[in-house]
Input
Amino acid sequence: MNEHLNEKFIQIQGVAQTFKTAKGVFPALRDVDLNIAKGEFVALIGHSGCGKSTLLNLIAGLTVPTSGALICANREIKGPGPERAVVFQNHSLLPWLTCYENVYLAVERVFGAANKSTGVNAENKAQLKARTDAALALVGLTPAAQKRPGEISGGMKQRVGIARALCMEPKVLLMDEPFGALDALTRAKLQDELLQIVAKTQSTVVMVTHDVDEAVLLSDKIVMLTNGPAATIGEVLSVDLPRPRNRVQLADDSQYQHYRKAVIDFLYTRQAHVEKLTA
Ligand SMILES: Nc1ncnc2c1ncn2[C@@H]1O[C@H](COP(=O)(O)OP(=O)(O)O)[C@@H](O)[C@H]1O
Ligand SMILES: [Mg+2]
Output
């Protein structure tokens, strides 16, 4: 892979998104331009309703832009695909399947005979099982593998969602406020685990969050969106903190505080007045 492709692994070019609503056309995003490098961890942050999920859904290929283009690994994003796995806030697990089965389903779809395009190289049951076991182990869920979603905590459900995404060996991991519904301690634990997993898998990650500390702790780059309607990228902050990162050590690190303040200034000073106008 050449350097150009590495630096511009994901390219978002002049993207706009409008939605047709009962009240007319609603402009959600405009003029969004962004390059994401291979292996980069990018946070999308902004006030509620600004268009974070809209942008993530475009990268996921769940929606198509009204104008502009999105490219991943030199190919235009035309729909969803296993190379861009998504983790949603509400985990979206099938409640009648065990944790193991929820993950196995995705493994089988991507690597098993169910996938027509790769059917020729379909893996056997033992190989699919090994992939499922490995993904569950990666998120520390081996002991809960045979439990159903109704029998496990919110944090564990999110872990299944992450395992299900990682088992596909995606090029890009897309996460929409994956820890937003969790209590603070569980959230911290999962953030730390995600840091370790990403260090291991070298995944490219785009994560939507509205949590400033989460953005600074995890990211290489924080993309700050202006308030909608017609939201766009207001500022991009590079977070040059060495890895591995330790939340306790970073708590009184001056550079960490500097990044934190930059995001808070953007959200609560520069974007605050717009919020009042639209509130
Ligand atoms: N399918 C849709 N139809 C109409 N409006 C939408 C649709 N999806 C999102 N929106 C609007 O676009 C704006 C951005 O939404 P969203 O991306 O979900 O915000 P965020 O994730 O930042 O909270 C909001 O005003 C929302 O109401
Ligand atoms: Mg959202």
In short: The beta strands are 10-21, 24-36, 41-45, 67-72, 75-76, 84-87, 172-176, 204-209, 221-225, 233-238. Residues 119 and 130 are 18 Å apart (CA to CA). Residues 52-53, 176, 208 surround magnesium ion (ligand 2) (CB under 6 Å). The first strand starts at residue 10 and ends at 21.
